[in-house]
Amino acid sequence: MKTALITGVSRGIGRALAQKFLAEGWRVIGTSQTGNVDYSDPNLKIFDLDLTLPKSIQKCTALVSTWLHEHGYKGIDILIDNAGAMFDEGETHLVVDKLRQTLEVNLIGTADLTERLISFINKGGHIVCLSSQAGSIQDMDRIMDSHEPYHYPAYKISKAALNMYIRTLAVKLNHENFDITVSAIHPGWVRTDMGGSDAPTTPEEASNDIYQLAISRPETGQFWYKGEKYPW
Ligand SMILES: NC(=O)c1ccc[n+]([C@@H]2O[C@H](COP(=O)([O-])OP(=O)(O)OC[C@H]3O[C@@H](n4cnc5c(N)ncnc54)[C@H](OP(=O)(O)O)[C@@H]3O)[C@@H](O)[C@H]2O)c1
Question: Is the distance from the beta carbon of residue 37 to the nearest atom of ligand 1 less than 6 Å?
Fold first, then answer.
């Protein structure tokens, strides 16, 4: 049985993703800020994780390591950095405190956790990070021309920075012959706490796309949306 570690499996896309992997016969290590989720499965193990707290990240990775070792499990085949936050949804200007908060979750905490988990990822493994169209610098050309409202700048900046982390990680792992693929994915506009009730895509539809990417071996260091490359 292969193992996937997915952050933020309590709700939204992460919850649907954990259930997809379990239904496909995977062992799933999930995280939530409380250490609990409202569903269970013999192949699901939950650890608590707050990406804003370095100690929580250290403790979570140490517990994952011990748990894998105690059960004789070989390592992690797929890591999905799904957990993310948007603190400035209604903002039309940059609020620096909200930028700091957003970067702690979407960039710094995510990068810290990923760096700590690399040594547990098996050869042929895949790191998939939930990015967003909102982080595409090229996509800003469309917004510039369309007069769409300028909103959630901190979130946009955090996902653009996450995209560069993903590319730098892909280059490093490639140069060091790690045999680990790294991908960014835009899940679409998804009906979750973050996406809101008007979003056209269900978490289940988004999780199917993410699952298909995660189990494939695409070109490393690319940004994907519905199976196609998306511009950075
Ligand atoms: N929904 C969309 O339309 C959309 C579009 C593009 C990209 N995305 C990206 O897709 C990912 C999932 O989004 P979603 O729509 O499912 O969001 P969501 O419903 O708001 O769920 C967010 C998840 O992230 C976790 N999380 C938040 N802050 C955290 C922290 N400080 N430490 C650890 N975990 C934390 C939450 O865990 P708890 O429940 O334990 O708090 C929850 O599981 C995010 O990275 C998001 O940026 C979403």
Answer: no
Q: Quote the ligand 1 centre to 105 CA distance (angstroms).
A: 10
Domain boundaries, the chain: 3-229
- 3-229 CATH, one of 3.40.50.620, 3.40.50.360, 3.40.50.720, 2.70.70.10: 3.40.50.720
Determine if the pTM surpasses 0.90.
yes
Query: How many other CB atoms sit within 10 Å of the CB of residue 97?
Result: 10
Residue nearest atom 19 of ligand 1, based on CA coordinates: 12
Residue nearest to atom 43 of ligand 1 (CA): 8
- Residue pLDDT, tens place only, 28-44: 999 999 999 999 999 99
- Whether 136 contacts 115, CB under 8 Å: no
Q: How far is the CA of 12 from the centre of ligand 1 (A)?
A: 7
Element (DSSP H or E) covering residue 62: helix 54-71
Is the sign of the CA dihedral 56, 153, 91, 140 positive or negative?
negative
Spacing, Cα 102 to ligand 1 middle (Å): 11
